[in-house]
Amino acid sequence: MGSAVCLRGLEKHFPRVHALRGIDLDIEEGEFFGLLGPNGAGKTTLISILAGLTRASAGSAAIMGFDVTAQYRAARRALGMVPQELVYDPFFTVRETLRLQSGYFGLRRNDAWIDELLVNLGLADKADTYTRQLSGGMKRRVLVAQALVHKPPVIVLDEPTAGVDVELRQSLWNFVRRLNQQGHTIVLTTHYLDEAEMLCERVAMLQEGRIVALDRTVNLLRAGAERRLLLDLDAPDLPDFLRPRLKGREGAHYVLDLPDYGDLEGILAQLRGAGVAIRDLALRQADLEEVFLKVMHGGRA
Amino acid sequence: MSGFRTLLYKEILRFWKVLVQTVGAPVLTALLYLLIFSHVLEDHVQVYPGVSYTAFLMPGLIMMSLLQNAFANSSSSLIQSKISGNIVFVLLPPLSYLEFFLAYLFAALIRGFTVGFGVLLVGLFFADIEMRQPLWIVAFALASGAVFACIGIIAGIWANQFDHLAGVQNFIIMPLTFLSGVFYSIHSLPPFWQSVSHFNPVFYMIDGFRYGFFGQSDVDPWFGMAVVAPFVLLLGGITLSMLKSGYKLRH
């Protein structure tokens, strides 16, 4: 126990694709975890196995210690899943949809929690609207509410902000963050790396069905890419003491290696001492996208 | 079993919300058959002594409507959910395959019975309909409705698009139901077609159902039930094993 999600040797063969090639992964309770990777890396397959929508060819998957096939009832009760596609049932209103979803989980009088969800997701005034009449963003909110009707300890969001407007992204993340603070484990797949960087404590990067990087987000950022100092100087040449740091040029800027920001003070002082004026200065830090690209194009982080 | 109750309720609510299409339309269709065939044949055909052609026609029409709508309910619900993707709403919760099966089965039966009852009500305006053996009526309605509900579930799961379903509907369901003696007694057929009809399970469904009304039929109702009941078990078994394996639902 202790693991919200536990995967061991997970394999998935589709008729033409070897989608997962031995995934071992533990996601701790209360974590905000990111699952990154290009299209076809196996993210959605992995999540579908967790949700019981796809069956593993080999290996095991457990949610809160419950095996997703042998103990599927307990496992599914522990999981809330927001699917990637904007699906809805055109026959029902928002409230009917949420009541039905509660009923499938054996919850008969769930209206207090449904009301709370509606308010938190900005759907209160849409409760009696048919889901087919809602905008894309609103439909997404209903899907989030549906995933939460049974207050699952583990919540999986499969690219929830794809094609969603900025305002909803913000309010959705605030809501999900609050759920995380209340103790829910969040597993997120996203194409927006800035979101993963901002939200996830730990990320796994998937490529061709394998985990190619798995670490705390800060560690990946630190290890994955160098820090750079960009300088445009009012001088014909780069002063000698800076030559060892030189990595290249971008337009008028020298690109210098700066692994430790503490060195900046000394560099500026030396420049002042040498009488070299600075026209422009910029610091560049790795973002997850850089780490991601680096990992994807060979080598592990 | 409360997950099952909710799924059954949802499946009933689904057709109840569009009652005009799901019940009104088939009842109207049956009414048109009734008007046309009884107008043309009333004075020319008497199948059983003391039973008018219009009265003879009624049980067949009721059963045909019941079967077609039991099939339509489970198959159309599943294909719509699959194509729109909202099938995940019932795949994600902790519902067992048995609960899933029973919910779709009962909803299809309820739709079939609702339509059948509607046809009966309309028919009462046109003929005196007696029900001599109500238990046989209920037994054949239940068993036959279950067979078509199962075919509907199987077809709904198997079909990848509406065309596939229309194929099953037009090339299997319609011929089986039309060529089963809804509009005639098979004794009026040439010997060859009589023996062909005996290979159509729907013939026994309608014949046994009719026995419940008139106490007369082409074959003994016990024999008819002995033919229909194994189909319930067979198709129920196929449906359950498909659902258990997750065929086309859980990949």
List the helices and strands and how they pair.
The complex is a heterodimer of chains A (301) and B (251).
Chain A: E1 3-13, E2 18-28, E3 32-36, H1 43-51, E4 58-63, E5 66-67, H2 72-77, E6 79-82, H3 94-104, H4 111-120, H5 136-148, E7 154-158, H6 166-181, E8 185-189, H7 193-199, E9 202-207, E10 210-216, H8 217-224, E11 228-233, E12 246-250, E13 253-257, H9 263-273, E14 278-284, H10 288-296
Parallel strand pairs in A: 3-8, 3-9, 6-7, 7-8
Antiparallel strand pairs in A: 1-2, 1-4, 4-5, 9-10, 11-13, 11-14, 12-13
Chain B: H1 2-16, H2 19-41, H3 53-84, H4 88-91, H5 97-123, H6 134-158, H7 162-178, H8 191-197, H9 201-214, H10 221-245
Could you characterize what this model shows?
The complex is a heterodimer of chains A (301) and B (251). With 301 residues, chain A is α/β, with parallel strands linked by helices. Chain A folds into two domains: 3-222, 3-Layer(aba) Sandwich (Rossmann fold), CATH 3.40.50; 226-285. Chain A is built from ten helices and 14 strands. Chain A has helices at residues 43-51, 72-77, 94-104, 111-120, 136-148, 166-181, 193-199, 217-224, 263-273, 288-296, and strands at residues 3-13, 18-28, 32-36, 58-63, 66-67, 79-82, 154-158, 185-189, 202-207, 210-216, 228-233, 246-250, 253-257, 278-284. A six-stranded mixed beta sheet of chain A has the order 6-7-8-3-9-10, sandwiched between helices. Chain A has a four-stranded antiparallel beta sheet with strand order 2-1-4-5. Chain B has one domain. The longest helix of chain B has 32 residues, at 53-84. Chain B is globular, with a radius of gyration of 18 Å. The model of chain B has no long low-confidence stretch (mean pLDDT 92). The A-B interface holds A 14, 48, 51-55, 72-74, 76-77, 79, 81, 83, 85, 87-92, 96-97, 100-106, 108, 146 and B 2-3, 5-7, 9-10, 13-14, 17-18, 81, 84-86, 88-96, 246, 250-251.
